[in-house]
Design a protein that fits this description.
The structure holds 2 protein chains of 2 kinds. A 5-stranded antiparallel β-sheet of chain A has the order 2-11-10-6-7. Chain A has a 4-stranded antiparallel β-sheet with strand order 1-3-5-8, with no helix packed on it. In chain A, strands 4-12-9 form a 3-stranded mixed β-sheet. Chain A is about 30% helix and about 30% strand. Chain A is α+β, with helices and mostly antiparallel strands. Chain B is built from 24 helices and 18 strands. A 5-stranded antiparallel β-sheet of chain B has the order 11-6-2-16-15, with helices on one face. In chain B, strands 8-3-14-17-18 form a 5-stranded antiparallel β-sheet. A 3-stranded antiparallel β-sheet of chain B has the order 1-5-4. Chain B is elongated, with a radius of gyration of 36 Å. The chains are: A alpha+beta, B alpha+beta. Chains A and B meet through helix 3, helix 4, strand 6 and strand 7 of A and helix 6, helix 7, helix 8 and helix 20 of B.
Chain lengths: ~325, ~675
């Protein structure tokens, strides 16, 4: 439930939404790291709580009418317990500390995941604390002095930075008659890379004219296993694999070719901007998988030739944040 | 349409119960309906049991819910059977049975958390309704257990609901035992507020809607007719009829005749009260100022309308009237505990002439019955001169002939009095009273049968007298010219010990298998508790409430003021709970030491007991040195303790802590003999 969508609605629902928003804003904003204080915690009866209260009123009327003291006592006891559970729900939430929220980058179309670290500084155990944007997505018990993480996810629809929406921590402990909740306004964003194209033109490899295959044979990097052949060096024998399969295997080594490719925006004529980004993303992933060195050239900026995880992240970030 | 249906189905699939929560819900329902269930006829019992069993099997076998049609049909059939059995759903038992039955049927479709919560809530409602039938201590304890179960069920449901977002709920760190303990703590926390509400909540002086008739399972106690065997049935029943606390003198056992229904009409087999006597008001009443005994009666519900008082009642309780034969008849039937103040004058008698109408009723007998008795009486009539001589003659007859007082008299057929007087000669108070009254009427002496209770158990500690159903008794009253209605107890002529010692002690035989003296004693002791509870809690009503306020010097509080007071109570309790309790917990926790420190202090205490004193500033190792030099203890032990302590302090390990605490436990320092 994003803040902008609700303001566009009209009628009673919109009004309630607006009031809710106002309350949230005046009581907040709660941006981690934050410790939940009493003014951050809202307590309201749940639907079940309201029905239960109604039942208690019925029982009360019956007890009063028949002047049945034990029925009255039962009603008062249940009523007092109901009241106590509202305080228990409140106490279950108040004092929690939301330390920080981290989020790893995802590709568009995947779920953006937010890992929220929450610690329970108090001495009391806290039960069934659930977190979610609109509906609860994760739930935990918190031992005293424990630190736990809950993970929220939401579908990513656009590349670029996606801000984590407002989420709530909620508990209906102990009987489900009352819910206590807090709205948290995180300042965390998730980076969404463009969705890699499923089909894409081959990598524009511009090595030393040879095929894109790395040369097998001697080298520094392990490529795979092959059957032992006479003449293979003893150091190359894959002892563990051999033992497992009762057959001799030796490691196949390869030397990465000094191949490089220039992933150029301009190579992709005939695609629209987003498709180009998709293809470039797919190329980056492919080049990375094949351990090529590659550079990325975009209309406005470019990344020099490089290799490995750092290069991949740099390239993907640039693609993600390419101005639309 | 299909998409809507599918969506709904999918949504409900989220909130499904698991086995554990299903079992708790079923347990809650079964517990709360058990007392009601036990009172049902057998076929209804079975009908109620069926859905419960099915649901249990479904929980274990992971069955699907039954089709809608089957459920509706089953419910319809069950309701039809119930209505046929009870003849409607009016009356409390029938209404509550209906509730229980429907709730059991609800189990058939209880597969979601929402439905489960409905079942648990309504189970609590059923619990409350059980207090309509009994408010005694065992019932209260039972309902407390039911509420605990319900709380646990709600807790389990809440956890189930919260954790369904996870594919695999966490290892239940929250065990059932701790849930029960939590429920109990919650109850204890709520208890002060509950009690405050109980005392302060405005009560209604009179009910808004009427009390359904036949509130209790059956009418208990004496009834509006007496046939052979009716009192005998009561004789097996040790439940309390009423409790009396006397102000001042307590009458002797043999003087305690508690007057109840009075019978005038005899049809040859049974005695009935007459319309006339029931509806004519008492003409001449005893003077309350001359009454010898003053007392408070706390009467258990009977579903009847008689109030009991010692002969002869001088006061008429509120909402009751006194009939011409001194029965106290309540306007409404007594469906709950009732207290009234009473005064009695045993010496009272109305000596005025008997009106003709009443005299005629009092000598009337069915024609053609009991010819042998009639013959006997006419023989006597020839020999006796006055009515009082006739009475004495009859009593002598009972006393001198071989009559037996027994609980198991043989059955009598047509001429009941004849057979009793000449053939069987074995009977119970009702036989004697009936036969004697018939004999008197044959002699033309106005006579009537009075039923009630005789005697009672005087509690040594409770300062009250308990009258049980088994104290039921029947006697006669005859009208003698010059002295008016006079009480004659023919049973006393046969079995004087019945009058002296009470009904149960006068029997040689045991009434039933578990009829032991010590059991009766413990029942009496328990009654003390029950009576206090009745007096202070069950009988609390609008009147008591206002008198409580005036005792506190608050005067009469209006409803508005009470509501404000209740709000204040709630607020204070909440504040205590939110601020005071955590603060106290913090203070207490600060006092608690960590376990390593605790063991170390124990060790040092043991040392100082053995007079090993070391300056506070000394390090543990120095302390070990001092201790080793002065104790004949093996140095290894002390060194090991110190070493363990240091280890625990600086590198935590649970195993070492256990070893430390064990070693400190076994450490018994003794000084070196010097």
């Amino acid at each position: 439930m994003s803040l902008t969508s609700s303001t566009q609605r009209f009628g009673l629902v919109a009004l309630i939404e607006r009031i809710k928003e106002r309350v949230r804003k005046t009581r907040g904003p709660l941006t981690p790291p934050v410790t939940l204080e009493y003014r951050h915690v809202f307590v309201m009866p749940t639907k079940f709580g309201v029905c239960f209260g109604f039942l208690l009123v019925l029982m009360l009327l019956g007890g009063l009418n028949f002047n049945n003291n034990m029925a009255l006592m039962l009603v008062f006891l249940l009523g007092a317990m109901t009241q106590m559970t509202s305080l228990l729900a409140y106490r279950n939430l108040v004092g929690l500390r939301i330390d920080n929220i981290i989020s790893d980058a995802v590709f568009c179309g995947e779920d953006a995941r937010f890992k929220i670290f929450i610690s329970n500084p108090g001495r009391q155990k806290r039960y069934t604390l659930s977190a979610g944007f609109k509906q609860a997505q994760d739930c935990r018990d918190f031992n005293p002095s424990a630190r736990e993480s809950v993970t929220l996810h939401m579908p990513s629809q656009k590349r670029g930075w996606v801000a984590m929406p407002v989420f709530r921590l909620e508990t209906r402990f102990p009987l489900g008659l009352f819910k206590a909740w807090s709205w948290i306004f995180p300042n965390t964003s998730c980076l969404v890379y463009p969705e890699p194209a499923k089909t894409f033109p081959p990598l524009p490899i511009s090595g030393q004219g040879e095929s894109g295959q790395a040369k097998k044979g001697d080298g520094d990097q392990v490529h795979g296993l092959r059957k032992y052949q006479q003449g293979d060096s003893r150091h190359r024998i894959a002892w563990r694999a051999s033992a497992r399969h009762d057959k001799m295997y030796s490691l196949e080594m390869e030397t990465p070719r000094d191949e490089s490719c220039e992933l150029n925006w301009d190579l992709l004529q005939g695609y629209d901007a987003e498709s180009r980004l998709s293809v470039l993303t797919a190329w980056v992933l492919e080049a990375d998988r094949r351990q090529l060195t590659y550079s990325l050239k975009m209309p406005l900026e470019s990344i020099a030739t490089g290799q490995g995880a750092g290069q991949r992240v740099r390239c993907l970030e640039m693609l993600a944040l390419y101005p639309a | 349409m299909t998409s809507l249906f599918r969506r709904r189905k999918k949504r409900s699939a989220i909130n499904l119960l698991d086995q554990q929560s299903s079992l708790w819900v079923i347990a809650t329902l079964v517990f709360s309906m058990l007392p009601q269930w036990a009172s049902m006829p057998v076929h209804l019992m079975l009908i109620t049991l069926l859905p419960v069993v099915w649901r249990l099997l479904a929980a274990f076998g992971h069955w699907k819910p039954m089709p809608m049609l089957v459920r509706v049909l089953a419910a319809a059939v069950a309701v039809a059977v119930l209505v046929l059995t009870y003849g409607g759903i009016m009356g409390r038992r029938a209404a509550v049975s209906m509730l229980v039955l429907m709730l059991a049927m609800k189990l058939l479709e209880t597969f979601t958390i929402r439905d489960a919560r409905v079942v648990v809530s309504l189970s609590l409602f059923v619990c409350a309704t059980q207090f309509l039938f009994s408010q005694e201590l065992p019932m209260i304890l039972y309902i407390v257990a039911c509420v605990l179960t319900a709380l646990t069920a709600l807790m389990v449901l809440q956890r189930r609901e919260a954790f369904q977002v996870l594919p695999e709920p966490p290892e239940s760190s929250h065990q059932i035992r701790s849930e029960l303990g939590f429920g109990l703590r919650l109850m204890l926390m709520a208890l002060p507020i509950g009690i405050a509400f109980f005392m302060l909540f405005p009560r209604w002086g009179s009910p808004l809607w009427g009390m359904p008739e036949n509130a209790l399972d059956a009418k208990t106690g004496l009834s509006d007719s007496m046939s052979p065997g009716s009192i005998q049935g009561l004789f097996m029943d040790d439940s309390p009829a009423f409790r009396v606390s006397f102000q001042g003198d307590v009458p002797r056992q043999s003087e305690m005749y508690w007057r109840g229904p009075v019978f005038w009409d005899f049809d040859g087999a049974s005695w009935k009260s007459s319309y006339l006597s029931r509806n004519l008001p008492a003409v001449k009443k005893p003077d309350p100022n001359k009454a010898l005994f003053r007392y408070e009666v706390q009467m258990e519900p009977t579903e009847q309308r008689w109030l009991f008082a010692l002969d002869y009642p001088a006061l008429t309780p509120k909402g009751a009237r006194m009939s011409i034969d001194y029965q106290l008849i309540s306007r409404r039937s007594i469906t709950q505990l009732r207290s009234y103040t009473m005064a009695s004058d045993p010496l009272f008698s109305d000596k005025s002439e008997l009106p003709q109408v009443i005299r005629r009723t009092a000598v009337e007998l069915p024609k053609g019955f009991n010819p042998r008795t009639r013959q006997l009486i006419s023989d006597w009539q020839a020999e006796t001169a006055s009515d009082s001589e006739m009475v004495a003659r009859a009593l002598r007859y009972f006393n001198q002939q071989q009559f037996h007082y027994t609980l198991n008299p043989p059955l009598l057929s047509d001429d009941t009095v004849d057979e009793f007087l000449f053939d069987t000669r074995e009977g119970f108070c009702e036989h004697y009273a009936s036969a004697f009254t018939v004999m008197m009427r044959m002699a033309g002496i106005p006579a009537r049968v009075v039923t009630g209770y005789m005697g009672g158990w005087n509690s040594e500690f409770g300062d009250y007298t308990l009258v049980r159903q088994s104290d039921a008794h029947a006697w006669s009253e005859v009208w003698i010219k010059g002295s008016g209605w006079t009480r004659i107890d023919p049973t006393a002529a046969v079995a004087p010990e019945r009058v002296e010692r009470g009904s149960v002690s006068s029997l040689a035989e045991r009434r039933y298998f578990f009829d032991f003296e010590w059991l009766r004693d413990s029942k009496n002791a328990f009654d003390l508790l029950q009576r206090g509870w009745n007096q202070w809690v069950i009988a609390f009503d609008a009147g008591r409430q206002s008198s409580m306020f005036s005792q506190f010097g608050w005067g009469l509080w209006g409803a508005g003021k009470l509501v404000v007071a209740l709000m204040v109570v709630l607020l204070l309790a909440s504040m205590c709970f939110v601020w005071l309790l955590p603060w106290l917990m913090k203070v207490f926790a600060a006092r608690q030491l960590d376990p390593v420190q605790r063991e170390w202090l124990r060790f040092r205490q043991k040392l100082s007991k053995a007079n090993i004193e070391a300056p506070d500033s000394s390090t543990p190792t120095e302390l070990a040195g001092i201790a080793n030099s002065q104790l004949k203890y093996s140095g290894n032990v002390i060194n090991r303790i110190v070493e363990l302590y240091l280890h625990c302090r600086y590198s935590a390990s649970a195993g070492e802590l256990n070893e430390l605490s064990e070693m400190v436990q076994q450490f018994q320092p003794r000084r070196l003999q010097t």
